[in-house]
Structure formats: C-alpha cells, structure tokens
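If you are new to this repository, start here. Below is one unmodified record pulled from the training split, so you can see the exact layout before writing a loader.
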Amino acid sequence: MTTLPVPLPAEHIPPGTAAWRTPDARRWLAAAPARWAHPLWALSALTASLVWDVAASPVAPCTSAAPCGTDWPGMGLATVMLLTLYWVWRQPRLALAGLGVTLAAYAAEGGFAAAFGEPSALAFLAAAAFTLTGLVHRLAAAGRQRACATEASGGVAHPLPARAQGFRRGRLSVVLATPLLLAAVFGCWQAGQVAGAYGERAAGATPLSGRVTALGQHEDVDVLTVEAGGRTHRFETAFPEDFPVGSRVDIVVDGDWKALVAEPYDALGWELLAVAGSVSGLAFLANGLAGRTRSKRLRRGPQPVLQVLVREDDADGRTRVFAADDPEGLRPILHFHSLYAFGDEEDEDGPGGADDGTAAPAGLDRVAGILGGEAPPPPLRQAVLFGAPCTGAEVAFVALGDADEPEAAVECSVSGVRPAVPGPLERGPGPLGRKSPRRPWEEIAAGLGPTEEPRAWAADGFSRAVGCGLLLVQGGGIWAGLDEGPSWRWLWLAVVLPWMVTAVATAVGWRVTADRDGLWVTGAWRVRRVPWSAIVSVRHSEDGIRVDRAEDSSVDLSPTGWAWLERRLGREPHALRAAEELRVLLLRPELRPSREAPTGRQGMPVGPLLVALSVLWGAAVLLL
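And here is the target side for that same chain:
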C-alpha cells in the first residue's frame, strides 16, 4: 500500500510557487555533467601521469655547489599540486586556479619543451588538458542546471524563511583548519631552525676536502666513509649514489660535530609536517569559506521556489528530493545532507534552541532512525525548495516533520547539491537516475513465455574477461613459481593452481541449459544433469549461480562474472538475470521448454584444456 506524502499546509507555501514536475526534472537531470566529466576520471589520469612524470624526471645530485637543503619553492608547489588533486573532486573553481599555477610552474621548469621528447611529460600535459576540459564542463553544466531550475519556477522568487536567515555554514571547517595550519607553520619554523643552526655551526667550523673510501649500511641506514685531514669520518646519507667510492667530497668539522656540505642537515620530518598540515588545513579552510560564501549567497535576496517532495534516507542520512508528481518516491532528482535551522542558530556545528519547540523532535527521530535502524522508513513530505539547485549549490526547504506536527520545520543543506545520476562506480540508473530494482516475477515470466526449444544461459563477454584476467594471474604465478627451479614455491603452486584452473574454466565456459526434464549445468570439469523434481531453489550467490537439490547438496558455478563491478558500470549482472529466470522456470512449470535438449547443446567443460595449456606453459618456463 502506498503511503501518501505528508502535506504541507497552504500557509507555508509562498504565493505563486510552481510544482517541479517530472518533465522539468528530466531536463534538469539532462543538464547534469556528463559521465566522462566525473572527477574520478580526471583525478585518476592526473594522479597517474603526475606520479609517472615525477618518477621519470632526473633528480639533480647533491653537490657542494648545490647542496640538498630545504626546497621551499618545491614544497610550495607540492602543496599546490596535492590541493589541486583534492579540489578536482570538491572545488572545481579552485581546481582551475591550482591547475593554472601547476602548469605555470611546469612551464617555468621547461616541462612544455620536454613534452616533445618525454612520454611522461606528454602524458601529464594530456591529463591536465583533460582535467581542464572536465572542470570547465562541470561549471558550465551547473549554470545550465541553475537556468533549468529557474525556468521551472516560472520566475517566482521569495526570501528564505526567517529561521533560515540565521543559519551559518563553514565554521566547523574553519575551526578544524586552524590547528592544522598552526602545525604547518610550526613545521616550517622548525625546518628553518634546523637550517639556521647548521648555518651558524658551519660558519665557525673547519672546511675539509676528503675522499670517499667506502659505502656501507648500519641498521638499514646508508653510511659514507670519508678520509679527510688524516682522520676517518662517517656520515649518514640519503643519496649514496651521489658519492661513489673514490670521489672527492667537502665536509665541515667542529670538534665532535661534522657534516657533509652536499647534505648539510636532515629536516625531512619537519618538511613533511609542513606540507601535510598545509594541504589538510587549506583544504578545510577552502571548504569552510566556500560553504559560508554559498550560504550567504542563498540568504542575500529572493530565491526561486519550487514545490517538491523530500525524504531523508536512513542509510546515509541524505535528503532526497523528488518531483511533485512522484508520490511513490521512485525517481529522485537530487540529494544533499541537511540540518534543521533554528531562529537563534549561529552555525551548523552545534544545535541551537528551537524558537517554538516543534522542530527538534523530528530531528531527534531522524537521528534515532539512522543510528538504531529500527524506525520505519520516513514518509515522503511535501516541501518548498528555496534556491536554484545545481551541482555544488546550497538550498533550503520547508516541510512538516510528520503528519502530527502542526508547525513546519526549516532545513538547510550542509553539503553541495548532487544530481541523482550514477557516477562511474555506482549502480546504473532507472528512470531519472533511480537505482534499478529487482525485476518482478510477472515481468520475467512475460519475457520468457512458453516455448518448445530448450533455453540456455552461458558466459557473456564480461565473465570471459574475468576469466582471461584470472588466466593472466595464473600464468604469472606459474612463471614466478617455476622460473628459479625447484623450491618451496612448488608447494604453493600445488595448492593454488587447481583452484585457479577451476575458476578460469568456469568463468570462461559456464553454461546452464533448461529443457523439458531439468537443467544441464556445465562447469569446469563436467556436465551435470539435475531433474526439475530434484531442484529446491536456484539463486545467485555472490559471484556464482547455485542450484540447490533436495538431497541437501548443490551444484555451484563460480565465478560467473563480477557482480559488484558490473553494477557499478551500470549493467545488470548476466548471472543474476540467469538465476532469476531459472527460478521462474522452477516455480512456473508451464513456462518450461517442451522438448529435450539435443546432444551437443549442453556445452563442453574447458577445464581439461586449461590443464594441458598450463602444463605446456610450465614446461616452457622450465626449459627456457
């Protein structure tokens, strides 16, 4: 039975407020950023290319003329780079600025010229261009969404309710940023103290020139032995490759104190503290200032208003917004986190007192539902949405907490609006971005229909791709185990290899055939016959299909793909569909095929073939 949404009294609906209906919601969702512009892709490409370019770039050796001290410009650039990677995900406007600074520094160091001869530099520039394109697209898409929402409102705008005027954003982030930035300042100060102490000590020390006589290790630390001034001196070094045996080095000596001029001091710990504190502190500070700015913009003047339906999700605490003509709440439009606003509230970090004592119980009920998990799902509520929603924007809404509350509550977003469309690693959408539910039996039965010919479900391309991936792992394991001749690794192969061969053979060649009398189940090693009268159930278990039999045994096929990844890529797992259709055939005998499967239609196990290939591969490894 469908529960009607909790209505919002007419006195809480501003005059002229239009309903946000499904056609307008579809246009708003169509204006959302494209899947290729999801920050995951840009972040992955930029991070991988940046790591590759840094690893491939030559490192200048430590010398007396150019000692390896604290690189303040390098620390600053590293901070900007790390912040840019974070802002690509959270703050596209700041990411544009950070990317501009990074590219300017890259050009100053000759990175653009190196791109013509270095693949790593070319890959970094290509990733930067892709990231820049995605950021611009996301900002343009937000503008289109804002225009769609304003058009849907019919140009009607009203100021926020009085209780939302005192709601403040960003204070918690700024508070968290303060100790982190202080830690960064302390790290910089300590690094400067270490450098200054060396400079003072070296100014009064005796300079000597010596010859490297040995390189060794002591307690996992590289030690350099230098003969200078008729004495033997030993120094810990971070770059032993810069000081080959027989080379000349400069040192400074002051009594028992001594140091390499090329590696004068070690302030790496303080430098890491400075960078980590700066990155995390500036990230919190930027989030706080951005939230405060968006919140002020929302309160600055009249905002577009729309009638919608809202529901708080007990699973993640998000508020989901639905079209006004979607009373069943099947098609979410957007979602965000929200908190109740009270008349004297100064910040979202700590709850103030409600001005009439009516909004607080609803908030407590929602928290109890999220933590306890025993409360029933909250009903849909009619609401008025204030603000032109777009990706990353701030909004507010007015709605009743439940049907028993006489007064409306005001809630303000404490996270940016996100469209209810799947990302690259999220489950594929149904209409308007809804997660696809399990198909009803009536729909499956209608799709099957009565037929004479046997039905078959076999490994699809995704399952075979999983099998090929496992086959590569299997081949690499055989190589690693046999390459160095007889060893204990052969015992490991004896244990793991049978399981690997079975998994690969199943993923590549599994097949289930249904005919008049039962199922033919083709696994890695044989084809099994399971009569309908012996089958208790058919179900999809993890990444396999399980056929339970009456004699307390089962016929299992696993793996038949990778259901988790298939869902995140927006597709229905093929093995899940097969299990659902087989279950319908089990429970609806009239839909079963009326003929028996002919010989050869049951498939062929590929396990024996894989054993032969594995033996040949192992022999080749041993012989070569």
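Two things worth knowing about this chain: The longest helix spans residues 119-152. The chain is about 45% helix and 20% strand.
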